[in-house]
Amino acid sequence: MTYLVADDLPRQAAGETFRELVARDSMLCLPGTHNGMAALQAKAAGFKALYLSGAAMSASMGLPDLGIITIDDVCFFVRQVVRASGLPVLIDGDTGYGEALNVMNMVRAFEDAGAAAVHIEDQVLPKKCGHLNNKHLVTPDEMAHKVAAAAKARRHLYIIARTDAAASEGLDGVVARAKLYVEAGADAVFPEALTSAEMFKAAADRLPGVPLLANMTEFGKTPYLKASDFQKLGCRMVIWPVSSLRAANKAQETLYATLKRDGETRAMLDAMQTREELYDLLDLAGYEALDTSIVASVPPRQGDT
What we know:
Distance between the termini: 30 Å
Order of helices and strands: HEHEHHEHEHEHEHEHEHHH
């Protein structure tokens, strides 16, 4: 049903729902959804929670993932994904947009926009994608201070501390930082850019009881593993952060090349979502039924103008 009907809205705080999903025996799979349409499609596929990637949000705005986008930019995406899906959404909070007070402001802004969870990272601004080289980190104490600030500000938000220490400090650095961040108030840890299944297993073994988030990004440093593989290695959550954007961008690239070459789109019709499929996914009929002054829309048949 449409998001305009109150009976269709979640009754429980999003963070509490997310916490319950993490606590279940099954792996929590979080596909990246870079806009409201992607969120509708992921929900239709059967996913129970979603992810909003900073890299995907930045790229969809035509910007690189260097911590350029603002809290207000992110909240725009949060609101549409939450509104479209009604599902709990994990948000990429980059470095928290500053120091302790900025982190606290971020937490409240994301909660108000409908977010269920956030992860913040221990990089220095300007930050980089976790799978790139030469990342610079803040001290463990600086990051712990941010985590504590986030925990103090939240009402229900689930807080995940991301550490990018694997490349520069090895697994020992990852584990030491993770323990400090959990002590500061993090609910879970995101050890970014681990390079082997063995590293994930070792991290889980050395952090007993700490829910771990794995990042199954394409074209990165982590080997391609299934959700079930990550679960066997001791992880509780896994994200595919930019997959939806990569697929959509490649399809658009093909479309524009075809249109430029042919001067028409007929060669692409079989690869397109039909009008009926779009209206179905958007629940156009449901919206129209809420207002009896709107005459029901009938999609044109092939050949109609």
